[in-house]
């Protein structure tokens, strides 16, 4: 796909699964490195997973991905139009944001250099709930200018807060006389939290948005047998102890039934997104990947839901899983297990993390105390 094809609706281009670049960051991985990124990317591309979502905030993800994408092992086999790159602007660090027009433009140009590409398929404004909406609107205007200049193909926003995403989407449609192309929301189309489907999708569609990325299907590693991931920056996970406790109880139950909590949660998230997608409204799942083993496990799990062949480009095809019934036996078992998990979660089902918390001042884009605010969207 070339930059000249940007008039094609994004819903017709974005595949059902995307590789999350946060797995190459200090937040969720100890010592992210070039060798890790290259090996994961080579295997992902071989298996057909060629859409990547990252951010300047996921340091050093952009740098490592760019080194991998420019490596002869990749360039000798894949041209730029055979993979899809999404990144973000605005969030710099856990407590640092810059949505100024000059920085947004500088950040995009830096991402182009880091990723060794002449254009970016999608650029999101990152974690928009942490800054004043007027600054977000200004940043979107800059990104739309950069679409016209040929640096970007599609523009979106990302946030945990569904209400803020919907409000900004409506404002964009009104102020810029065109809709946002895409919205990204994290950890709210999961086995634990279904608020994206319940509260977000209808509002996004009404605002003209054609694509929604549901990221963190495991809620940043919460929905698995092991504890939450701890990278070089320590335990950043926003889940309170009560939620962690019931998730562990649910994971133990699922394991006792001979199933993996992580696999069940991933199947549930993908199946949910595909069931709500249409040819003109795509819901895609972003999977955090840190290793070849994790990549292969996740794709094997995804195949159980998408019911696609082993052809090398199956994930790149936007038709994968849209019109094919899932395996009924697997779906029946999963339905029973998911129901049991929901019973165990009890009042924690559909619990949402505060974002931002009471310790964050949106107007000043600063913490209001010495306590560090929760880090979001990985």
TrEMBL record:
Keywords, in A-Z order: Oxidoreductase
UniProt GO MF annotations: D-arabinose 1-dehydrogenase [NAD(P)+] activity
Residue ranges occupied by any NADP-dependent oxidoreductase domain in the UniProt entry: 16-304
GO-annotated cellular components: cytosol
Biological processes per GO annotation: dehydro-D-arabinono-1,4-lactone biosynthetic process
Any one Pfam family match given in the protein's UniProt record, by short name: Aldo_ket_red
Protein name, entry field: NADP-dependent oxidoreductase domain-containing protein
